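Problem 12. The chain below contains 672 residues. Write out its predicted structure in token notation.
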Amino acid sequence: MKDLIIKIARILLPGSLKRIGKGYQCIHRHNPQMSIPYVLLHGKLFMPNKNKDYFDDYVRQFNLISDKINVDLSTDYLYPFDTMLLRVFDRQLICSITVDFGKVLNSNLRELSHNLELAKDFSFKSREKDIIASIKKLAIKYSRLLKKKDTPRANILSSYFESMLYRKPQGLDEALQKILFYDALFWQMGHLHIGIGRLDYILIEYYNKDLSDGTLTKEEAKSLLRSFLITIGKDTPAKSAGLIGDTGQYILLGGIDARGENVDNPLTEIILELMSELKIPDPKLILRVNHSTLDCVWEKAIQCVLTGIGSPLILNEEPVMEKMVRFGYSISDVWNIGTSACWEPLIIGKSFDQNNPFRSAVAMSALNNVILSNEYLPTFESLLSSFKVQYKKVLECVVSDIDFDCSPLFSLFFDDCVKKECDFTDGGSVYAYHGAQVVSLPNTINALLNIKRLVYDEGLYSIDDCRNAILKDFNDMEDFRTLLTTAGLKFGSTASEVVNLTNELIKFTGETVHALKSNGRPIKVGFSSPNYIGEAKNFPASLDGRHKGDPFAVHISPISSKIDISEVLDFSTRLVYSDNCINGNVVDFILPSSYIKQQDKLIGIIKNACHNGVFEIQLNVMDKATLIDAKAHPEKYPNLVVRVWGFSAYYNDLPEEYKDNLIRRAEVYETA
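Solution.
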């Protein structure tokens, strides 16, 4: 019963809470009849009073959590994340933030407290010191509990929690425990999609020290990292925002440092090796690559991809960083580029950027609106002009101001918050560039190309035929649908007509979004959205040949068996993104399993695409027969991992429509 009530509470919130005796009543914001009388936490009635100041509410909640967290003390690492204490605010949650865990490692509670002494804002100083006091209390509690167990491992961990109060870690093992401690607290406070950041870069000093003084061997260090990865991934179902696996827990590898030097190191290879061996979907990996990325790293990365786990995503940092600077990020900060949960770029430890806070803009809706409007459209140019008018409205409708909650916990570790004496959501963070996403770009391009050819160039069909096809979902028009899906130029082709039309729409998108703002700040936009199934479920048929309700195309991917990985990557390098079109532009492709035996060929294809300027690449390796059999006989494939959008998941955990979509895509790409 307790679990059920908590589950209902999470569904009903956001709402308000009314005190009833020793407990609280959860009042649903839109439907009071759906209110529930109590919220139980570990058998006790408790929820904070949302009518009081939300900063105070945050601190009270954190204090409660510190007192109530239940942790397994027998594991290799302590991870204070209690799924029964997941926090829900009556405000918009802060999601997809990357804390600088390098700063977390270098700090200690004594120093953090000392830095607050000069703060003049009493309220800010008071709540931050309360947060520090709760962290200190929790660390001391774990130190004492572990000491009572009196086992060799418990005694080691006990000393780590004690030293957390006054110094930085002294070795790799201690550093991993500290990262896990704070990562769990961020999640526990309801801040979802928290990335781990540049793990190889921030841990290499500890690894090198341990090796040089004989504390650890390479194999022992690898064993510690194995335990770390397993710990991060063990609560995936509870952490998932929607589909199981969608946690945003990414580990960033590679890339440059502040001096412009490549940071590839032995830990880069070890982590890639471990993920290849573990074959788990969470955490996921993102590899920052550039012209100096080591060959051995490329080999380990492609080996990992070819295991089928969908990691790592390849982020071509040089063109992305260049665009970020042109958009408004400081040239002195972009060396520390990270991503927001999936692929949307931000600055680690400095960005409050929320990169998926709006509903996705469905480009195809603008085209369908024009076709169904009975407007006189004598030429393709008039059609395209009317489409842009409608598309502009679609983009304008999705962007709005957003009300975010505070996070005094985050503010301890984000640059400038203490200096400015304000929460990182209220101006304490350096950057707050939120992002919009466009879905169905490939479908829209294909539909426009189809109309141009069949209606205006060849005169085989009319706009009325197009209108009827949409309204009738191609009923009794299968010949027309076959032409739409199979004949003519398609998105992903390197033909100049396709590239030019795509660039025209990208430019128009950038110009339209340039005039929009959220919370007074410029907006980023990208053409990779996780909503290619959700937004398509009730969407009418479209003139790319898609039936009503069928999924849209996935990110920057072709919908044709005639376009292979080499061509779509070549196509993507010819796309010209406006300076604000940087919120994720991922080439997504399902590789036939035959590539497992062609590793060198695949490395060459990917490296060439990066050299020519592709933004990001996401690859799946699977075959249609396996997916069909796994759907029919899930018990035979308990560990089959697939890439979904910006995350990987166990195939058996996916809803049926996602399984069906992967089967369809695998079938198309098998012959590409």
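Discussion. Residues 122-149 form the longest helix (28 residues). Students who got a different answer should revisit the alignment rule from Section 12.3.
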